[in-house]
Amino acid sequence: MAYNYQRIIIKIGSNVLTQKDGLPDHNRINHLVEQIAKIKKKGIEVVLVSSGAVASGRSLITISEKFDSIATRQLFASIGQVKLINTYAQQFEKYNILCSQVLVTKEDFRDRLHYLNMKNCLKILLQHHVIPVVNENDVVSVTELMFTDNDELAGLIASMLNAQALIVLTNVDGIFDGNPDIEGAKVIEEVSGKPIDFSTFVSTGHSQFGRGGMITKSNMAQKTAQLGIAVHIANGTKENILVDVLDNKVAHTYFVPNRSASGKKKWIAHAGNFAKGIVQVNEGAKAALTSAKASSLLPVGVINIISAFKKGEIIKLVDETGKPIGLGIAEYGSDKAAEMMGQKNQKALIHYDYLYLEC
Ligand SMILES: Nc1ncnc2c1ncn2[C@@H]1O[C@H](COP(=O)(O)OP(=O)(O)O)[C@@H](O)[C@H]1O
Ligand SMILES: N[C@@H](CCC(=O)OP(=O)(O)O)C(=O)O
Questions:
Q1: Which of 76, 143, 199, 312 is the most buried (most CB within 10 A)?
Q2: 138 among the known binding-site residues?
Q3: What are the pocket residues of ligand 1 if the criterion is a CB atom closer than 6 Å to any ligand atom?
């Protein structure tokens, strides 16, 4: 049966848009745009997260090897993004569709106000039937300021916009149960239920022009599906792939969405990288938090304030062994939390509505 989505995010990896020699594959871009136009005609809202700036830049300028890799990447991305967005704009115009450029950095997801500004911008674009084409702002995002890759960015955008689905196009048919280059490896067609450790069969490497590789894609997909968004990982080099994925006519990896989480929980889930405070809880608190019943974190279950935090900041929760359990917004600061630690009948440190659990 075909999937019935109203709002989807489509992420296209560098390898899908790039030929073997590293230059942009215009025929493929045109074919993908043609499919997106068909999808849009059905009334489905689409946000595109497209890699390819560096690959486009590489096709436009030749540089000597004496420049370091970061500067080279900035140069390629800065020139290439213009070319990439122009290509999209020209192609979408054929179908009377307007597209727009949205360049973001990891910092834009850090602050709730920035986050809401970005969300409002994307929403007004969608309300005006524009296709936002999102990419990382590679010119200013370098080293530790970077997203792991655009898969991470696509997951963030999907959560931010409460999309029903995220379609990740890459250069293989989905997640394989082993190295896809080795005969006998098969595509895992469905992932559901309890989180899986993908590192046992997905290698950490990435393909020639990709950044994060399949392992980051798998982990992001799992996290996004946990937040109630379906994720499809499919082969973007195949003819008619987007239409076939939505019609459920092609083998690929489908992550079944979990019960839907609130918008705030989605933000908390993805803001973990910015958490400053760390709180350790005992086994009893861990069992209560991870049980089927909705529970807030009470001071009685807190055994250690590992790192300080203020009221309203995101804090990480770890168990007695130091394993991460989840994230939440602190109802009060670490000084007060330290005073109440271990005591019964005290105000919750994290209210259930502002708690996101990883296990
Ligand atoms: N178990 C696996 N299943 C699928 N792909 C895998 C697996 N292990 C490693 N890979 C590699 O991951 C690559 C896709 O990730 P990546 O290079 O990040 O591409 P993209 O540019 O689409 O983001 C594939 O080309 C494949 O070689
Ligand atoms: N922002 C970069 C792409 C980085 C990236 O994550 O690439 P990929 O792993 O192919 O999705 C670019 O436009 O070239």
A1: 76
A2: yes
A3: 13-15, 170-172, 175-176, 179-180, 201-203, 206-207, 210, 212-214
- What's the mean pLDDT in 294-314? 92
Report the distance separating Cα 215 and Cα 234, nearest Å: 15
11 annotated to a ligand binding site: yes
pLDDT for 262-272, tens place per residue?
667 777 877 76
Kindly give the pairing relationship between strand 277-281 and strand 302-307.
antiparallel
Q: What domains sit in the chain, N to C, each tagged with a CATH number?
A: 7-265 (3.40.1160.10), 275-357 (2.30.130.10)
The radius of gyration computed from the CA coordinates of the chain, to the nearest angstrom, equals: 22
Rounded Cα distance between 100 and 85, Å, is: 8
Give all strands (DSSP E) within 143-198, no chain letters: 165-170, 190-191
CA of 100 from ligand 1 middle (Å) equals 28
| ipTM metric | 0.94
Residue 221 zone, left/alpha/beta (φ > 0; ψ -120 to 50; rest): alpha
Residue range 152-170: average pLDDT? 94
pLDDT digits (tens, 9 = 90+) for 272-281: 667 889 999 9
Supply the pLDDT for residue 212.
65
